[in-house]
Amino acid sequence: MPRYSITTFGCQMNVHDSERMHDVLRRAGYTEAGGPEEADVLVLNTCSVREKAEQKLRSEVGRLARWKRERTDRVVVVAGCVAQQEGERLLKQMRAIDVVVGPDNIPELPGLLGDLALGGLPVARTVFDLDAPRFLVASPSSSSRAAPTAFVTIMKGCDERCSFCIVPHTRGPERYRSSDEIVAEIAGLVAAGTREVTLLGQTVNSYRDPLGALPRAPGASADDPDESEFAALLRRVAADVPGLARLRYTSPHPRHLTPSLVLAHAELAVLPRHVHMPVQSGSDRVLRRMIRRYTRAEYVARTRALVEAVPGLTLSTDIIVGFSGETEDDFAATLSLVREVGFKGLFGFKYSRRPHTPALKLPDDVPEGVKGERLSRLFEASEALLAAHLSGLVGTTQAVLVEGRDKERGAGGARGQGGALWSGRTGRHEIAHIEGAAELDRLGDVVEVSIARANKHSLQAELTEAARAAARPRQRGGAEPGPARRSLPVVAAEGG
Ligand code: SAH
Ligand code: F3S
């Protein structure tokens, strides 16, 4: 049986696409190799959102040329956004590549590999499924429990035209999945053991049901062009899948953070008290050049409404530094916005000029050194906010969804008895390492912990007495241990 391996670059959408490629390949009779060296088919799921990500692919393929020469039947597949962006050109530029497959063509992968095995020539398939959009779902596994957390795609593509962004080009126009299908997938996952679902989309909160099956959500205005059916979808998932512990989503666009969504957050307990809301810049001048279609004041007012509706809700964001024409004053406005909103997490990026983007018309005129220096100052500001936030949680009690085992005893700087064995996330998405929790026996439980210490980016926690007592009886009953979450190699999720 041929063995395959997948390496993933980039965003959660790519992580999700890689999971679907695992499914598609397994169903076609392939088995997962222990590592890339042992594979017959190597898939690189690529990202092109910044130039650095694209360079990574090029150096990786260079390395693989040698790997291929060792055995002529080895196959290199390039998937993801670079595949979509470059198509056939990749085959011409890099002889080591055998198959180029776009995000909408994943189901065709086994067929393309089959043709190749029969002597077919290298091939590129990068066609958007505009007329009949396909949303691949995870195949239910009959033998084991599902992972405690899962992604569910609700829309793909993007109709915004942020001037810096290549995504509308690589992922095509917006296409939505029906709410019936979304609810059915989530219900299936929850029945198999999943506790937390993250709804995925490029502008996830612009969602509309293509079949018009959702009632208007409370608070939704009929004549606000920014209104969508996202709040209605959240309400339907909450009502129809009561076993779901947490319902997250990423990434929303600030324009669609409307009163109906704020109200959903206020009323639905399943929505956690954390939202990632990309802002990109704190300067109106830069926001206009970025074609973000909101002002700083609008962003602040909308996120403030959310925080007022859900006390204690935290926000994280994406920021680009050194965009075309960004002055020191513009950057100072970004820093002041970071402090004003008080983001508890931040992905920061140096502006990188991308092909097929409107901003190609603007000069990339902020020197690399200035971009780097602004990025450091940005991280400094956000680290200080995060440190203050995390240390403020010491001594509190939090509900943690157990998502994984820490790699080693004592990981995360644990000094407690037995070291940190388990880790998970609080309702606000802070990472918590749970020390000495021998009573826990499986992933997916939501347990009560008290926060003992703050690390730089995470919390050190202990089970509360009540949580220990609740865990013990089941352990005596010998409940079967849950599976460790299969971890996909994720590269370049963060940085600059
Ligand atoms: N809506 C998408 C955004 C994809 S890009 C989502 O679901 O996350 C992710 C982030 O990368 C953006 O929010 C932006 O901060 C950053 N980014 C996009 N294009 C960029 C570019 N050309 N240079 C630097 N950073 C960029
Ligand atoms: Fe990109 Fe803007 Fe869409 S950042 S994905 S064009 S909302």
Describe this structure in words.
The protein has 496 residues and is of the alpha/beta class. The protein has 3 domains: 3-129, Methylthiotransferase, N-terminal domain (Rossmann fold, 3-Layer(aba) Sandwich); 149-392, pyruvate-formate lyase- activating enzyme (Alpha-Beta Horseshoe); 397-476, Nucleic acid-binding proteins (OB fold (Dihydrolipoamide Acetyltransferase, E2P), Beta Barrel), CATH 2.40.50. It has 14 helices and 20 strands. The strands form 5 sheets. Strands 1, 2, 3, 4, 5, 6 and 20 form a 7-stranded parallel β-sheet that branches. A 5-stranded mixed β-barrel has the order 15-16-17-19-18. Helix 2 (51-70) links the parallel strand 3 (41-46) and strand 4. The two termini are 40 Å apart. The model is unreliable at 409-417 and 477-496 (pLDDT under 50). It binds S-adenosyl-L-homocysteine and FE3-S4 cluster (F3S). Residues 11, 49-50, 164-165, 167, 202-203, 251, 278, 280, 318, 320, 349, 351-352, 354 line the site of S-adenosyl-L-homocysteine.
